[in-house]
């Protein structure tokens, strides 16, 4: 039996139907943990091996670079070398590729530069400064968010000042040949509408299109995909409307239903066989999501029944008790044979993490936080990329301004402005302007500029003479950047040196990508910059030995043996803001509940300190909806009663919570009275053991 036969035999009936539906439009509703990636990769392999479709005629669009790499590896394992000819890409990387070939049709140059949010914010700040815009109307960051929403959201309107800032921003980008992330989409659509021949070329190239995580696409992404599919309409989309949780990025679940309207003859396949969680966990998740009206009706089914004891509910009185309880349970789970990395503690709001971090530190529980600062957005990495780009293009003012004082060279804004004035007045390049500035007004600052210029010219020569990694070491030493990073690491333990060292892995990958091509290092870098900017997985090294602390959004697509879904309280989860969509909040809850494989804990607290004040929240409706299954609800009530009975008499050493005096520890008891030492004011009080204000805790 060959690999293809074995692969098809291991698919269930619905997965096989999705794999074999090759021609025409196909919509696959794939529930959480139903093996959609397996079906997607099997379909690509099936098209190549069984249908003799040329790999270069297949385009697969993924949501993240990590998913792209995983899909390519899986396809490679089935079809071998043919996999490298399949076009597998994120939507932004695809658009960047399309624009590199066609952007001249709308007045840009092919060597445009992609900027991230941080660089875009610098442009906005410059506009505020140049045009004397008062920040009291809205901050530059708010302006950037408004511009992003205007570009990708339907029916989003700009008002007077907003429109002025938008026009200035777009003018600046075009004049400096810059493109932001939203423009990658907007300009691609513009190019495809304007250049019919180029569109036809792409339609002929991408004859079969697959889109993963379709529920996370925005309107303009869907339009681009439809245009590329053309009249052939060999468009295969996979998604789960129950897991659409990124509306803040412009994504809309409506694209899934719009697809069915746009392609009324499309085939529809539903994947509902879950390979991740036990049935008892899934029953609760199904109960929750069934309360949403706007969805394709489906109910996940697991392969293992599981036990009602796999679902644990803990309602604490105070948020510290919740954190203490979770820490205690984690220690018990590890003692029972689980690894710390098998456990995820997840929450709706990032601010909740602080409570658990403190509890884990106190209990020596190793942990890692997901969703930190992206590697490529760290200051030192952006600086190094700017150095490389400026070495290649000495007239790039954006990168010149970023690196001229990294490390410090004592060159002030006035000196830089003077050089730029000379550049404009004399119509000369930047380096000639630096020479003219020194001749006109010799000083320590203009001398420093001249030294900087000579250093860059030296780099310009060395970059093609040395292997990339050796040149990188040379650059770090000669600029003094490595020495600066070492000092900063000593001062604040920032790990900048480690991050700089890790950049060598990226350079190694750049060299490996072009090993068969006769290219200079400059050419290799120029062809790699788009990938470096758009690859959110580069350089990320997550500590896999600890408990994962994360927002729900950051663990979508991941799974854990044990999951604690925390702070299940009205106002926190669901978040109840003016712009909140309760159906999306419920989808976020569904994503949280379906991360658990073997055991799930649902926790909440009656009192929580958040944003500087103690709030009293009702327990979340999602917790109530999860327990809508009568058998599960009965089990939880019995377990709660049992745990209270097991607490027995209040005893010395027990941690309690008092509704007026806060947390305390029992230091003495008699038949009626407990002596309690309270943490808040170090007071010792005698209180009736049966007083209703005392909330019982557990032993520490």
Describe the structure.
The protein is an alpha/beta fold. Helices cover 48% and strands 15% of the residues. The chain contains 27 helices and 20 strands. The strands form 4 sheets. Strands 9, 10, 11, 12, 13, 14 and 15 form a 7-stranded mixed β-sheet that branches. Strands 3-2-6-7-1-8 form a 6-stranded parallel β-sheet, sandwiched between helices. Helix 18 packs across helix 19 (430-440). The longest helix is centred in the middle third of the chain and has 19 residues, at 444-462. The protein is globular and about 95 Å long.
- Helix percent reads 40-55%
Query: What is the terminal separation in angstroms?
Result: 58 Å
- The outline comes out as globular
Structural class by SSE content: alpha/beta
Strand residue content: 15-25%
- What is the CA-based Rg, rounded? 29 Å
Low-confidence stretches: none
Number of strands: 20
Supply the number of helical segments. Answer: 27
């Amino acid at each position: 039996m060959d690999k293809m036969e074995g692969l098809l035999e291991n698919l269930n009936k619905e997965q096989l139907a999705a794999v074999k539906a090759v021609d025409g439009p196909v919509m696959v509703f794939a529930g959480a943990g139903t093996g959609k990636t397996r079906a997607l990769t099997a379909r690509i392999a099936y098209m190549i091996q069984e249908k003799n479709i040329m790999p270069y005629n297949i385009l697969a669009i993924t949501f993240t670079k990590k998913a792209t790499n995983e899909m390519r590896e899986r396809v490679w394992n089935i079809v071998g070398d043919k996999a490298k000819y399949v076009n597998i890409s994120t939507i932004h990387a695809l658009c960047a590729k399309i624009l590199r070939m066609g952007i001249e049709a709308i007045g840009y140059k092919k060597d445009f530069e992609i900027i991230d949010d941080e660089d875009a914010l610098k442009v906005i700040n410059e506009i505020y400064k140049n045009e004397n815009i008062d920040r009291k109307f809205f901050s530059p960051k708010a302006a950037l968010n408004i511009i992003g929403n205007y570009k990708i959201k339907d029916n989003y309107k700009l008002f007077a000042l907003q429109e002025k800032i938008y026009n200035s921003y777009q003018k600046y980008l075009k004049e400096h040949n810059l493109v932001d992330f939203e423009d990658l989409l907007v300009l691609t659509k513009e190019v495809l509408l304007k250049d019919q021949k180029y569109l036809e070329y792409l339609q002929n190239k991408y004859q079969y299109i697959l889109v993963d995580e379709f529920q996370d696409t925005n309107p303009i992404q869907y339009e681009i995909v439809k245009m590329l599919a053309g009249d052939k309409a060999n468009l295969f989309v996979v998604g789960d409307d129950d897991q659409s949780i990124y509306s803040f990025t412009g994504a809309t679940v409506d694209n899934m239903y719009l697809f069915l309207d746009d392609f009324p003859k499309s085939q529809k396949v539903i994947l509902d066989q879950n390979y991740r969680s036990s049935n008892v966990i899934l029953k609760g998740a199904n109960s929750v999501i069934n309360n949403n009206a706007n969805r394709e009706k489906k109910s996940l089914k697991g392969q293992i029944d599981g036990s009602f004891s796999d679902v644990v509910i803990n309602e604490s009185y105070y948020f510290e008790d919740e954190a203490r309880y979770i820490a205690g349970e984690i220690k018990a789970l590890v003692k029972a044979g689980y690894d710390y990395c098998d456990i995820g503690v997840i929450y709706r709001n990032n601010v909740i993490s602080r409570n658990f971090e403190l509890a884990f530190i106190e209990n020596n529980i190793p942990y890692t936080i997901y969703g930190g600062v992206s590697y490529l957005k760290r200051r030192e990495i952006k600086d190094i990329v700017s150095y490389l780009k400026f070495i290649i293009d000495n007239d790039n003012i954006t990168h010149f301004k970023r690196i001229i004082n990294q490390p410090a060279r004592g060159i002030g804004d006035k000196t830089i402005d003077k050089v730029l004035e000379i550049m404009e007045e004399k119509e000369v390049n930047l380096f000639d302007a630096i020479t003219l500035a020194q001749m006109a007004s010799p000083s320590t600052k203009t001398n420093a500029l001249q030294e900087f210029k000579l250093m860059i010219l030296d780099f310009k020569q060395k970059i093609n003479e040395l292997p990339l990694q050796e040149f990188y070491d040379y650059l770090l030493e000669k600029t003094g950047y490595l020495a600066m990073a070492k000092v900063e690491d000593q001062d604040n333990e920032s790990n900048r040196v480690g991050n700089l060292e890790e950049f060598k892995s990226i350079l190694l990958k750049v060299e490996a990508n072009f090993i068969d091509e006769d290219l200079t290092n400059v050419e290799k870098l120029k062809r790699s910059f788009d990938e470096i900017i758009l690859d959110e997985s580069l350089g990320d090294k997550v500590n896999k030995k600890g408990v994962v602390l994360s927002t729900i959004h950051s663990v979508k697509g991941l799974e854990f043996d044990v999951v604690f879904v925390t702070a299940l309280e009205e106002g926190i989860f669901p978040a109840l803001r003016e712009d909140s969509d309760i159906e999306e909040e419920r989808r976020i809850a569904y994503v949280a509940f379906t991360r658990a494989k073997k055991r799930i804990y649902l926790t909440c607290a009656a009192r929580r300190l958040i944003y500087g004040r103690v709030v009293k929240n009702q327990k979340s409706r999602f917790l109530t909806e999860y327990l809508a299954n009568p058998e599960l609800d009965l089990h939880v009530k019995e377990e709660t009663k049992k745990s209270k009975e097991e607490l027995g008499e209040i005893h010395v050493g027990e941690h309690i919570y008092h509704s007026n005096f806060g947390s305390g520890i029992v230091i003495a008891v008699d038949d009626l009275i407990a002596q309690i030492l309270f943490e808040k004011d170090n007071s010792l009080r005698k209180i009736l053991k049966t007083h209703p204000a005392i909330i019982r805790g557990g032993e520490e």
